[in-house]
Amino acid sequence: MGAKDYYKILGVGEKAGASEIKSSYRKLAKQHHPDANPGNKQAEDRFKEISEAYDVLSDEKKRQKYDQMRRFGGSSGFDFSNMDFGGFQGARGARRTKKTSFDGFDMFGGLGDVFSQFFDGNPFKNQGPQPGKDIHVNVNIPFELSVTGGETSFSVSKEKICPSCEGGGAKPGSRVTTCPTCGGKGHVSVLQGSFGVSRPCPRCYGKGQMIENPCDKCKGKGRVHGKRSYTVKVAPNTQDGKIIRLKKEGELGDNGMPPGDMLVKLKVKSHSFFKKEGNNVTCSIELKLKQVMNGTMVRVKTVDGKKVQLKIAPGTQNGTILRIPGMGVEENGKKGDQFVTIRVQVPENPTPEEKEYLRKSA
Ligand SMILES: [Zn+2]
Ligand SMILES: [Zn+2]
Description:
Layout: H1 6-10, H2 18-32, H3 41-57, H4 60-73, H5 113-116, E1 135-141, H6 143-148, E2 150-161, E3 176-178, E4 187-192, E5 195-200, E6 209-211, E7 223-234, E8 242-246, E9 262-268, E10 275-277, E11 280-288, H7 289-294, E12 296-301, E13 307-312, E14 321-324, E15 330-331, E16 334-335, E17 338-345, H8 352-361
Parallel strand pairs: 1-9, 11-17
Antiparallel strand pairs: 2-7, 3-6, 4-5, 8-9, 10-11, 12-13, 14-17, 15-16
Helix pairs in contact: 2-3
């Protein structure tokens, strides 16, 4: 393979400026774009060549190196495409983002998404199959459940394997053939600049197979949206914001790649009656003045959903705190208590007897 004359390929002089190179590239790329020349192998090759030339000449550092090589190597068969542009390799491992950005892509007027990847500008964004992304879900749980522990259920709408075609995308009974473009691999190597880059196959969209009759249910995608219910265990003394990871319940991965995880964030709802203080539960109850004067029995709710009888002694004061042992939060095998604060309602027109009581207790 001899040296390629990138200047000649782009039809510009050796002293051409960046804008001249750019405009020439755009003109040629548009003219030879594979979508504008379907099935034309020559145009495709020319297009790749143009892209490669532009990749080098549009980059100041690469161009400098290229010019240097030309000066020394002349036309004596120097193969520039094997050159290592040191310093670029580090970006190879960079994770791709789903969005491909290319400013000015509109100049091709909707030539299709697949080829926009040619114009990505970054040859190191490997577009090979990717594992599924994690799904984040917030689940509200009742206060009582966060204290006692138990289970909570919720449902999530997400993509799942189509049950009708079992993910194959083919109508049951229809013929499936190996994609001739990628030979069933689902990805193709594209020369971008001086580098071979793996891309999802544009013909089979990464599936590696061609389907004669696509499945009605999923339109051949092999995936459908559906609701799925989950039940997760909630540990006793669960704090607000705790995250439970459900392995492999996230988004499905690309062909052959594992799914992501589901991250369930437990949000503890605040309670109108109970509050948590350390591993104790607190609450307050209102009693009539008569009740505390004469003493009484009251029933108080506990976090386990039951009620406990509390004896209010005659003469109990406003603000008195009573303890219900073992009805708090379990922590390290030890259970806290429930503390009940007595609030006394003062009547608008107290009797002389009540007045006397209030005077004494003030
Ligand atoms: Zn299907
Ligand atoms: Zn293919």
